[in-house]
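Data deposition worksheet. Section B asks for the primary sequence of the deposited chain exactly as it was used as input, without tags or linkers unless they were present during the calculation. Section C holds the resulting structure in token form. Section D is free text for depositor observations; keep each observation to a single sentence. Incomplete worksheets are returned to the depositor.
Section A, Depositor: J.P.
Section B:
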Amino acid sequence: MKRSTLAVACILVGAVAAFAQTAPRSGTTSPATTTAPRLGTTTTTSKAAVDRSTPAKTWAALCAAVKAGDLAGFRASCYNKNEISKLFMDAYSDTLISSFQLATAVAKLGAEGQTLSKSLQSSAYDDLVKSGQNRTTKIDGDSAQWIQSVTSTQISAQQTMYFKKVGNDWLLDTEKSYGLDTSDSRKGAEEFIKDSDATLKQLHGVITDIDAKKITTVQQMKDRMSGK
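Section C:
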């Protein structure tokens, strides 16, 4: 994903940290970077069949997985060509879903927490949904480009996600969508993977303490997120 979109993986963490005191590449813009389920991450797998018969439906499944805390479901919508792709997507999905879970937990911290929760959830989930809107699909064999045109008074560009057909499903191609086939982006991905353990430990710790009522106010949560 491009730098601004990939920050979705850490946007809740960054937003909370800022309050207390991070998509597919576009054109030539290189993506920035955000393994198995970890302690504190809720994973629920729906028994109903998930429709991934088109890129749009796969993206809808990804968004639904974030909202449901379905880590396995999110990962099942992705195609990982190699080990770095898998490690990156594991870290990315874990961080994104845990961040959304933090936003949900914050709503337990009184009126101020409910207001902050809505803002944080919007930053992650709503932006994820919007990034899948107004796209066209170009298919070439078992590969597809999912293209969104972005036009403003200052720029006109295209943002492209890449999908790979596996069986009957169109899966998000992690390597191509996140630019992991370039040396700069691969390096950024490796750094993100390395840093994700500390990020997730903080997220899960704060969520656990909110649920246990050890954190009962937004100020206490802000202090924890800022390392106090």
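Section D:
The beta strands are 78-79, 135-140, 143-151, 156-166, 169-173.
Confidence is low (pLDDT under 50) at residues 1-46.
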